[in-house]
Please model this.
Amino acid sequence: MKILAVDTATKSCSAAIVDDGVACAELTTVNNQTHSKHLMSMIDTVCDMSGLKIADMDGFAVTIGPGSFTGLRIGISAVKGLAWSLNKPVVGISSLDALAWQCIPAAYPICTLLDARKQEVYYCRYRLRDGELKKDSSEQVIALAEAINDIREPCMFIGNGANLYKEEILEKLGELAHFAGWNQDIIRASSVARLSLERFIHHQTDDVALLVPHYIRKSDAELYRKKDN
Model:
């Protein structure tokens, strides 16, 4: 099964084509430019690299959040447009799930942290059970102290939030804190594609029309409107 996957949840932007779980082509970039400037050209490039066309895809996958409000909208809009025009299925994947998946196999429980600004992080914990990665908490946006306060065992931290708050984590947890390698902290579109594969196989796809970002936290505009009312 050929899957085109996209991630635009953070400053990194990634596009990949995976065929039956094997990456055919992948391109990832990290910069401060809006993803709308290069996402479609990246998709064209991975198609050229793989020798495939968009029409050859059996489905599309995309990170739906949490993450950058603007970034998520760009990636989801692009994938929805492709899926809609080609009448192909689509699967939305949690950006935190994708990060945790990149830690497998992990000797310790995994704590994913994405910078949510305002001294907060998007957070979720995971643990391998019978060879499968399972959530140990719900996805939340909370202060770092709250995210790590009850950790009493070795834990693997991953994500740009883990890098941003590494010193604070080490100060609190000491030798219990372990950190993923630099090559794991950036969400890769190939990980998104591989996570989506089982859902495609079992026909657990999303309604293209109803696929929307999973922000967790309300946007500043929504908060201001609520305050004004």
Observations:
- The chain has two domains: 2-95+187-228, 103-179.
- The longest helix spans residues 69-86.
